[in-house]
Amino acid sequence: MESRGNVYQNLIFAAQKALDETGELPSIPAQLSQLSGIDETDIGNIFRSDRQLHEALLYHAVTLLNDAVRQSVINANSSDPLKQLRAIGHGYLCWAENNPTLFRLVVDGLNGEITPESTLYRFTVSMRDLYRRKLTEMQRLGILSADTDIEISTMMLHCLVKGGNMMFLTRNTDPWFEHDDRSTIALAENIFTEFLRNLVRANRPVPQPA
């Protein structure tokens, strides 16, 4: 008999496969049982509603996304918060490019109501805190001036990321991009890099007179 952990993992993979192929999550327990080969009773013991399955797949997606971002920062091998921010953006965008179905699931959730204590609430708050922490480090190191509004800068980053999210989802139907032959990931990374460059340029500390 499979362990509960293995059954759970197999159900998640079956649900993801259905989402990849149809764009929709299977209903439980009947459809998920057919896809996974797992008994309906066993499925009911793990997921009591379609909402629970949806939340579980979101948790799976966010875990993979967080791992990709963390690995990108590790690969950057730098203590410079500006380089770390670029690495965060790079890891995020690469994961979005390589996991379009799960990324759409995450973005659709982020564009809807985010309930406290949910996976997406914890994810978006952790990203906000990460951006704020890196911008504060930049200010402390003198990359940004002492009077830089860190809260506004953090919100600007948030708006930029939300726009980038939608570019991945709507690029093919958005007239703004119809004459740009760059890939979505290349374009998004260029935009993110340019934003950071302009943020630093606009908030560079002014040299004090001798």
Textual characterization of the structure:
This protein has 210 residues and is mainly alpha-helical. The protein has two domains: 48 residues; 153 residues, Tetracycline Repressor, domain 2 (Orthogonal Bundle). 72% of the residues lie in helices and 0% in strands. It contains nine helices and no strands. Helix 4 crosses helix 5 and helix 5 packs antiparallel against helix 9. The radius of gyration is 20 Å and the shape is elongated. The model has no long low-confidence stretch (mean pLDDT 94). InterPro entries: Tet_transcr_reg_TetR-rel_C_sf. This is Tetracyclin repressor-like C-terminal domain-containing protein.
Number of domains: 2
- SSE pattern: HHHHHHHHH
Kindly report the CATH topology of the largest domain. Tetracycline Repressor, domain 2
Per the principal axes of the C-alpha atoms, what is the gross shape?
elongated
Q: Percentage of helical residues?
A: over 70%
Could you report the average pLDDT, rounded to the nearest whole number?
94
How far apart the termini lie comes to 77 Å
Largest sheet: none
CATH architecture of the largest domain: Orthogonal Bundle
Tell me what portion of residues adopts beta-strand conformation.
under 5%
Total beta-strand segments? 0
What is the C-alpha radius of gyration, as a whole number of Å?
Answer: 20 Å
Total of DSSP H or I helical runs spanning 4+ residues: 9
Q: Let me know the CATH homologous superfamily of the largest domain.
A: Tetracycline Repressor, domain 2
Secondary structural class: mainly alpha
Give the low-confidence spans.
Answer: none
The CATH top-level class label of the largest domain: Mainly Alpha
